[in-house]
Amino acid sequence: MSFSNRTNLHPSTFILIGIPGLENAHIWISIPFCLVYMVALLGNFALLFTIKTDTSLHEPMYLFLCMLAVTDLVVCTIAIPKLLSLFWFKDREIRFEACLTQVFLIHSCSTMESGFFLAMAFDRYVAICKPLRHSAILTHTVIGSLGLAIVFRGAVLISPHPFLLRWLPYCKTNIISHTYCEFMALIKLACAETRIRRAYSLIVAFLTGGLDFILIICSYILILHAVFQLPSKEARLKTLGTCGSHVCVILVSYIPAFFSFLTHRFGHHVPPHVHIFVANIYLLVPPMVNPIIYGVRTKRIRERILKVFSPLKA
Q1: 313: which of 41, 155, 225, 236 is 20 to 30 A away, CA to CA?
Q2: Closest CA to 26 of 105, 91, 95
Q3: How far apart are CA 294 and CA 163, in angstroms?
Q4: Is the distance from CB of 264 to CB of 275 less than 8 angstroms?
Q5: Distance CA 101, CA 98 (A)
Q6: In the β-sheet with 13-16, what is the strand arrangement from edge to edge?
Q7: Is the Cβ–Cβ distance between 223 and 126 less than 8 Å?
Q8: Burial (Cβ within 10 Å: 0-12, 13-18, ≥19) of residue 242
């Protein structure tokens, strides 16, 4: 049965084809994808358990890290099981409602992740530039309020996306050249004017990821200004070391995110399989790497994890 010439304006299902041009390699690609997903699950659950059970880690940076871990788990879990089902069992169909749900959860959680990166940058700014007021400024109430505000922002700004997609007619095809449902991938299937919808998506991306990134850079400019005023080289290196993990996770997350965003909208000459592969790296790699970076680079988390998960000595 051919799905490429469907005339139904509102199909009940879409067809995911995976990574175009690499269909024969789907089984082999699925192996590292599955391993990375399992490591991401294990790492984030271990991180959450470690921070929850150690009250000495109930500090702003680690509480924001817990929020980031939860969103990482949601992002990869909403997409990867279906991706593996597609690669292993040729399960290409996804219901229209499930597709819209995927769009909402992936984009809203990605927006929340960006917000948590900004909150963590603010924590580093207060800890370094206003150390005596750190505990007074970032109380548990303030941390909870910031977390709720970030979740609320992500949910509200992305909530129009499913409705904008649902009202579109899809008379071209119901085949999605991707491994999961993504806003721009669905927009390209519509046979109606989509400039307003594209513009809204672009504005939301700037108001969230773009603005967050600018504010993170500003916070680090202020941090560097404060650090270089310290009297000794040792003090400067020690202070900068407290920001190392945060900078690493930002780079791991933002580089593929910006590449995916820009190529979807402006990279018309980028091969589809390259764009889709990077989009999957964005969903998979940060959730795996984030707990590893913090587990390796943060002494208190590393010691706690080793204490909890190492075999009991006689």
Answers
A1: 41
A2: 91
A3: 38
A4: yes
A5: 5
A6: 93-95, 13-16, 175-176
A7: no
A8: middle
Measured CA distances, 7 to 151, 170, 273 (Å): 38, 8, 27
Count of Cβ atoms closer than 10 Å to residue 121 Cβ: 25
pLDDT tens digits for 39-88?
Answer: 999 999 989 998 898 888 899 999 999 999 999 999 999 999 999 999 99
Neighbours of 49 (CB within 10 A): 14
Note the pLDDT tens digit of each residue in 227-241.
888 888 888 888 888
205-263 tens-digit pLDDT: 889 989 999 999 999 999 999 888 888 888 888 888 878 888 888 988 888 888 777 77
In whole angstroms, give the CA distance from residue 79 to residue 156: 21
